[in-house]
Design brief:
- 59% of the residues lie in helices and 4% in strands.
- It has helices spanning 9-17, 32-53, 73-76, 79-98, 121-137, 145-148, 150-173, 189-195, 209-237, 242-260, 269-272, 278-291, 294-301, 308-337, 370-383, 395-419, 421-429, and strands spanning 103-105, 116-118, 202-203, 207-208, 349-351, 357-359.
- It has a two-stranded antiparallel ribbon with strand order 1-2. Strands 3-4 form a two-stranded antiparallel ribbon.
- Strand 5 and strand 6 form a beta hairpin.
- It starts with 8 loop residues before the first helix and ends in a 10-residue tail after the last helix.
């Protein structure tokens, strides 16, 4: 209800029925079809491995050279944990539908239309946090449950990720009017299932599945998992360590910042170009909450005492990373939305044959993907409170560096194809990819 949710359903129907091209995929990623078969096995394996390699339940070992014992099926799955995961997912879906929030228009699609998105993520975040903490402090739930049932909850999320991915694929192949992702229309079912077949799958005219999953269940769930780690440490020790407080505060702020900047994701590659399949579904629903919370879980099992110089270093790395990350992303998003805005109208640009402009100064004159550098610095700050006894808590920044390198290569390929000579000119003007004067 309300003026913000009014939508011309007839116009929407005309848009989705309108003829447009669904070009075939010509460039394969993640090792193509073989990779699309390996990744749905490898990603869950890695999710489990990070837990069994590093936990306090089998003698307190966190040794990367140790071969973990295979768990029994009873420790991997419970009906209760699956119910908790599904209840959380549908709770977020209800908030997405019910809460008020501004409506923003996405970027133009290849048929000339632009979808509208209900950006109420910030409201959903605060309602979720207040609800969860309220239930915990009134003893209706115990957030330490998350720590004690971490693996069954992860299994429940893996089941949800696969179930949603199969639904998305069959929805796409059974809808002749679906706009397919250019990168996920190869004709190979396993590859299209993995990369994402449909570009913007929706339920009805408003419920955008990719947009919903991008920030809601997984990112807010990540914060709730961190709260669960704090509850478990308080249960064990009667207090929460400064190291765990720092990790939780950093990750809480990262997610809150994403919610406050929710409209900015409408200009990202995930929303504009990638299909919604297993790659994004697993990443959003399982990989982010259950692997990015590794540092918090580690600090429950292996508490750390930080010196004040160590704390100062951690804070310095975190704030520098955030300054770069938010400054660069904010500048790009503002320019895309209004290039005449006082904060961006002075920037040097390069005109493209498509009629658009590439920013060639400011943050984007330092490196072509300078925002990735800020993201990587923050990832490092989240692991520094864990000390240096084992490399396992540093999995996230190491993995993230590889991910960002791969994503940067994906970006370069797509931008080169999209902007042609203008991109070549930009690369000559800004030779550094991610880290100014280094790479």
């Amino acid at each position: 209800g309300g003026p913000q949710r009014q939508f011309d359903s007839q116009r929407y129907k005309q848009a989705i029925m309108a003829p447009f091209d669904n070009p075939k995929t010509t460039h394969y990623e993640f090792m193509g079809v073989p990779g699309s078969l390996l990744m749905p096995v490898g990603l869950p394996f890695m999710t489990y491995a990070l837990y069994y390699w590093c936990n306090s339940e089998d003698g307190g070992s966190c040794d990367i050279t140790r071969i973990p014992q295979l768990p029994s099926l009873g420790t991997l799955y419970t009906h209760e944990a699956l119910f908790v995961v599904l209840a959380w997912f549908f709770f977020q879906a209800i908030l997405y539908v019910a809460l008020p929030g501004p409506v923003h228009r996405g970027m133009k699609l290849r048929d000339g239309t632009a979808l509208e998105y209900d950006c109420n993520g910030l409201a959903a975040f605060w309602v979720s946090i207040i609800t969860v903490l309220g239930l915990h402090f009134t003893s209706i739930i115990n957030l330490a449950y998350i720590y004690h049932h971490f693996i069954p909850l992860a299994t429940g999320s893996i089941i949800l990720s696969f179930g949603l991915s199969f639904f998305l694929y069959f929805k796409a192949v059974t809808n002749p009017h679906a706009m397919l992702a250019e990168g996920g229309n190869s004709g190979h079912p396993t590859y299209d299932f993995f990369i994402g077949h449909e570009l913007n799958p929706r339920l009805g005219s408003r419920f955008d599945l990719k947009f919903f999953c991008e920030l809601r269940p997984g990112l807010i769930g990540w914060v709730v998992i961190c709260f669960g780690m704090m509850a478990a440490q308080f249960e064990q020790q009667g207090s929460v360590s400064l190291a765990l407080l720092l990790v939780t505060a950093f990750q809480f702020w990262y997610v809150l910042d994403a919610m406050m900047s929710e409209p900015a994701i409408l200009t990202t590659m995930d929303i504009c170009m990638d299909g919604f399949g297993f790659m994004l579904a697993y990443g959003d629903l399982t990989w982010v909450p259950f692997t990015y919370s590794l540092q918090a879980r580690y600090l429950v099992a292996f508490p750390q005492v930080l010196s004040w110089p160590h704390v100062a270093l951690i804070l310095g790395v975190q704030f520098l990373g955030y300054y770069i990350f938010r400054g660069a992303n904010g500048q790009k998003d503002q320019f895309k939305r209004d290039p005449t805005h006082p904060s961006v109208k002075h920037l040097e640009t390069i005109q493209t044959a498509r009629g658009t402009k590439l920013i060639a100064s400011g943050w984007w004159g330092l490196a072509r993907h300078i925002n990735y550098f800020g993201d990587l610095l923050m990832a490092t700050a989240w692991s520094l409170p864990c000390g240096f006894a084992t490399p396992i808590p540093y999995f996230y920044p190491i993995y993230f560096a590889v991910l960002l390198w791969h994503r940067e290569r994906r970006d370069e390929h797509k931008c080169s194809a999209k902007y042609g000579a203008a991109w070549e000119e930009y690369c000559k003007k800004v030779p550094y990819r991610i880290i100014p004067y280094v790479y």
